[in-house]
User: What shape does this take?
Amino acid sequence: MKQEEFCEILGGVNEAYIQQAREPGKAKPPAWLPWSAAACFVAAVAAVVAVVPNYGNHFGVVPPDSQSGMAEGNFQGDASSTAGILPVYMETIMVNEVTGFLDAARVWRDPERYEAALWDPSAIRAYYGKELTPPYVPEGLSASPGNGTAQAILRKEDGAVVEDTVWLGFYHAYYEDGSPQLTEGIAARKGFSITASRVGLLGDCIYLLPENERATSAIGGVAVTFGYRSMPYGPYDPETHAPAGYYDMYVAEWEQEGVEYQLVADQMELEDVVKVVASMIYGQEEILIVPG
Assistant: This one.
C-alpha cells in the first residue's frame, strides 16, 4: 500500500480516538513506527497507539495486563464512523500450533426417524439469520460451485435439526467436478473453506496445547483461536519419503451469536486470513489490517 493511501485510510479513524491521543499519559508510539514516515502518517498513527499498546508481536503470548486472558486491544470501532473502516492490529493476533484434524465419523440415522432436507440459499439465511459468505474475499479467489446449498438432517417427529453444517469454499480455481484445483509448483489447494453450525461442528482441529493453554485473540469482542501448521506436499521421494516442500496452513475457530465457525486456509498470508475472519465478525468488507 502506498504511503498516501495509508494516510488517507487512517485519516478516517474516529475523532474521539484522535482526541485521546492528544491527552497526556497515553501509550508511546510502538517500536515498529518508522521515524522517516511522513507527517500525515505520524499524526494518523497517534490515534492508533492511543488504543493499542505494543505487545512485541509474540505469537502464543497473552499480554500481561489482559483482564480476560485473551489478546485484547483490537479497536472495536464504530461502523457508522466517517470512513467506516475498522482496524485490526496484527500484534494482538496469537497463533497456536496445529498438529492435524480429527474428522468425526458420520452418525448413522434411522431413516424411519430422520430425513434429509436440501437447503437453498434462502433456507440457509433463514436458519442462520445471516449471510454466511464473508464480506471480504481475497483477490484471485472465487466461490465454489457448491456454495449456497447444504444438506440438513431433521428429526421426523418434531422437525428438529440434528445436523446443520454448511460448507463454503473460496479457491483460486476448480476442476470440472467443482473440487478445488491444485496449484502449479505446489501440489495443494490455494484458498480457504468455512464451515458453520448451530448444532456443533463434526470435525475437530487438533492443537499442540490443551484447550486451557491456547492463546486466543479478541476481534470485535469475539474470542478467535488461530492455528498454524506447515503442510507437506508431494511428490514424495520414493526412498526417503521426504516431501517436495511445505506450505502454510492457517485455521481460525470462533463462536458468534450461537453459531460455531471454522476457517481453514491453504497457501494464504496470515493477514488475509485475519481480514476474512474480521469481515465475518464485523459484517463488513472495510477492514484495515495494521502490521505488527
Remarks:
- The chain is about 15% helix and 30% strand.
